[in-house]
Amino acid sequence: MSRLILLNQALRLHDNPLLWYGSDPGKPVDNLRQVAVVCLDKAAFFAKQYGIARASLLRLQQHLQLIADTKQALARLNIGLITLFGEPLAEISKLARRLNASEIIAATPTGYRKQQIIEALSRQYRVATLDINSLLGSELLAPSLETLPDSFSAFRKQREPLLQVASAVAEYKPQPEQHWLTPGESDKLTENFSQLAAFSQQVDQPGSNEQLALERLDNYIWRQQAISHYKSSRNELNGNYYASKFSAPLATGCLSVRFCWQQILKYEQQVEANDSTYWLKFELLWREFFRWQFRKYGNAWFSRQAIKGPLDFSTPVLSGRQKQQFNNWCAGVTGVPFIDANMLLLNKTGLMSNRGRQNVASFLIHDLGIDWRLGAAYFEQRLLDYDVASNWGNWAYIAGSGNSSERQFNVIKQALSYDKNGDFVRAMLPELTAQGSLVHQPSPDITIPDHWQSWLAKLTNKPA
Ligand SMILES: Cc1cc2nc3c(=O)[nH]c(=O)nc-3n(C[C@H](O)[C@H](O)[C@H](O)COP(=O)(O)OP(=O)(O)OC[C@H]3O[C@@H](n4cnc5c(N)ncnc54)[C@H](O)[C@@H]3O)c2cc1C
Q1: What are phi and psi of 442, to 5 degrees?
Q2: Is the CB of residue 286 below 6 angstroms from any atom belonging to ligand 1?
Q3: Can you tell me which atom of ligand 1 is nearest the CA of 247?
Q4: Cα–Cα dist 233/226, whole Å
Q5: Is the CB of 152 under 6 A from ligand 1?
Q6: For a pocket test of ligand 1, which of 291, 390, 401 has the largest count of ligand atoms closer than 8 A to its C-beta?
C-alpha cells in the first residue's frame, strides 16, 4: 500500500509539510510507501481559451525546469519524483491504482479547476489537503467562506489583527519512519513526461528553482535591504530592486509565503520596521484576499461579470475593429507609448510591474471597451508569475466586476507621474526619440479619449 504525495504547487524542500506527512512523532508508524508525484496539467499549458494559448513557451520552460530541479534535489535525498503529464485526474488515478494507493496528500487548491480535480480524487481515495501556500492556512486562522468579506479593506480589518502566521516547518530531511519510493523505482513509472523534453531549456528565474527563489529573497531583504524603501519604489516600472519579485516563485510554489512573512518579521525585529516593511506585508495580504475569494466564488470568476452578475461563460465578442485593437494591445503596438512599452516588457520578460499591469488593463477595458476576460487570458499566457486568483481577481477588480467599483486610469496622467522624463518608454521603444515627456505623445493614428486631452497639454520636452 502506498501514499501519494502530490507536489503540484509544492515543489520545494523548505517549509513543506507535505513531505513531512507520515512522520508525526505522536502518530503510529503506518508503513505506507510514500510516493512523491507531480503532474503537469496538459490543458493548463497546451489548451486555448477564447482562441488564446494558455501558456507561453517561457512559462512552460520555467515549470519544466522547476520540476527537473526539484527532482534532482529529491534524488539527493534518495527520494524519487514521478513526473506525470496529461489530464491530472486520469493520470493520478491511473498511478494510484497501479501503486495500490490508499491515500493522496496535496496542497489545498485555490483555482476552480484544481478544486474540481481534488474533489474528484476525493470521491475515489482518501484525500488530505494541507493549505501550505496561504498565510491563513492553518485551521485556527482560516476564515469561514460564508462570512468572508468581499472588500479588501473589510478583509484586512477582520484578519490583520489575528494574523499570527504559522511557523514555517524545517527544511525537509528524510525520516526513518518514512519509506520513499527511490529515484530508480520512480523513473520506471514516468511514462508521458519524456515527450516534453523538446521544450526544456534553462530559465534562470526565481520561479524556476527553489534555490534561486531563496537567493532572491535573501538578496532583496537582507543583502540589499531593498525592503526598507519598498513603499516609495514599488510603483516604478522596471529594475531589479524596486519591488520584491517574489510573485513568480510564490505562484509556482517554490517559495513559501509563510517563510517570506517570517523573514519580513525577522527583518523588522533585527533591522528596522517602517512603512515599507509593513507595506510588503500589506501586499501579501492582497494575494491572500484573492485566494480566499476564489475559494468562495469558484468558477464565477471566469464569468463575464465575474462575481457581480448572472453567470455567463460565453466567449467574448469583438467587432472587427476591436479584434485589431486587441491584437495591437497584445503585440505592444497600440500607438500609446506608455501602454506599448509595458506590453513589450511583458512579451520579452514574462513580467510587468504592478503599475504597468493596472494601466494596460484599464486601457484595454475602459479605453478600448474590450471584454476584460481577453486581457486576463493573454496575461495568463505570458506571465511567469501567473496565479489564477491574483490574475483573474485583479482583472475583474479593474473591470468593476470583482471586489470594487470599476477602476479607470488616465494613461497619460499615469505616464507623467511614473515615467516623468519618458526614460522607461525610450528604453523599451528606442525608435521613439522625442525628448523628455514628449515621448508619451500617442501616435496621430489613434482616437484620443476626451479625458486625456488636458494631460496631453502638459507634455513638454523639458526634463522634469
Ligand atoms: C491586471 C493584473 C494582473 C495581475 N496578475 C497577477 C498574477 O497573475 N500573479 C501575481 O502574483 N500577481 C498578479 N498581479 C498583482 C501584482 O501586479 C503582482 O503580484 C506584482 O506586480 C508582482 O511583483 P512583485 O513580486 O515584485 O510584487 P511586490 O510589489 O513586491 O509585492 C509583494 C507580493 O505581494 C503580492 N501582491 C502584490 N500586489 C498584489 C496584487 N495587486 N494582487 C495580489 N497580490 C499582490 C504578490 O505575491 C507579490 O509578490 C496582477 C495585477 C494586475 C493589476
Answers
A1: -65, 160
A2: yes
A3: 49
A4: 9
A5: no
A6: 390
Name the average pLDDT for the chain. Answer: 94
Is the shortest distance between the CB of 354 and ligand 1 below 6 Å?
A: yes
Total number of residues shown for the chain = 464
The pLDDT-based confidence of 27 (bands split at 50, 70, 90) is confident
94 CA → ligand 1 middle, Å: 36
Report all structural domains of the chain as residue ranges with CATH numbers, in order of start: 1-132 (3.40.50.620), 209-298 (1.25.40.80), 320-456 (1.10.579.10)
Judge if the beta carbon of residue 276 lies within 6 A of ligand 1: no
With a pLDDT cut of 90, the percent of the chain lying above it is 87
> Is the distance from CB of 375 to CB of 338 less than 8 angstroms?
no
**pLDDT tens digit string along 314-367?**
999 999 999 999 999 999 999 999 999 999 999 999 999 999 999 999 999 999
Print burial letters for 101-114: b (CB count within 10 Å at least 16), e (below 16). bebbbbbbbbbbeb
Contact (Cβ atoms closer than 8 angstroms) between residue 422 and residue 441 = no
> Which pLDDT score is estimated for 158?
86
Question: Is the Cβ atom of 71 under 6 angstroms away from ligand 1?
Answer: no
Residue 45 grid coordinates: 499549458
* pLDDT bracket for residue 162 (50, 70, 90): low
Mean per-residue pLDDT, 406-425: 96
Q: How confident is the model at residue 190 (pLDDT cuts 50, 70, 90)?
A: confident
277: Cβ below 6 Å to ligand 1?
no
pLDDT in tens, 363-394: 999 999 999 999 999 999 999 999 999 999 99
Residue-wise pLDDT tens digits, 222-243: 999 999 999 999 999 999 999 9
Better-predicted residue by pLDDT, 168 or 275: 275
Closest of 201, 232, 227, 202 to residue 216, by C-alpha: 227
